[in-house]
Amino acid sequence: MRNAGIWIIIDTNWRILLLKRSNYTKAFPHHWNVPWWKWEIWETPENTVIREIKEETWLDFIPIKIYFTCIVENSWEMIHSHRFLWNWSWKIKIQETESDWYAWYNYEETRNLKIAFNHNEILERLYTDWLIK
Fold first, then answer.
1. pTM assigned to the model
2. What tens digit of pLDDT does each residue of 71-89 get?
3. Which 3-state string (H, E, C) describes 64-127?
4. Which of 59, 46, 66, 56 is nearest to 11 (CA)?
């Protein structure tokens, strides 16, 4: 099992940042997802997510807390996942080999999207916890 994390980015209008996966991705091409990453055994989840977010979106992040952890099972592997809440700054510039678009969505708008992995569960929990509207 490998370790992975989800980063949850919420703007001042209570919308969440979602990335649209490119057709180059192995799993769920053209589906929307909460940005996520994997880390090496010698890295902490916090250090890894700071590095990965900078690489994938060019955002600067400051960790606030781990939102929750879970085990995600894909058809080819199981992933131990940590989901974080963060403060962020800067302008988004996506890594085009993994994503081909990004957008900010409120909860109702996400219900009409093709969502990758188990990220619908994340959206439901964020809505239930009043973190997105």
1. 0.71
2. 767 666 676 666 666 666 6
3. EEEEEEEEEECCCCEEEEEEEEEEEECCCCCCCCCEEEEEEECHHHHCCCCECCCHHHHHHHHH
4. 59
Distances (CA, A) of 131 to 21, 44, 51, 79, 122: 24, 25, 25, 25, 11
- d(C-alpha 115, C-alpha 133), whole Å: 18
- Spell out the domains of the chain, with CATH numbers in brackets: 2-128 (3.90.79.10)
For 91, phi and psi rounded to 5 degrees? -105, 140
The most distant pair of C-alpha atoms in the chain lies apart, rounded to whole Å, by 39
End-to-end CA distance of the chain: 34
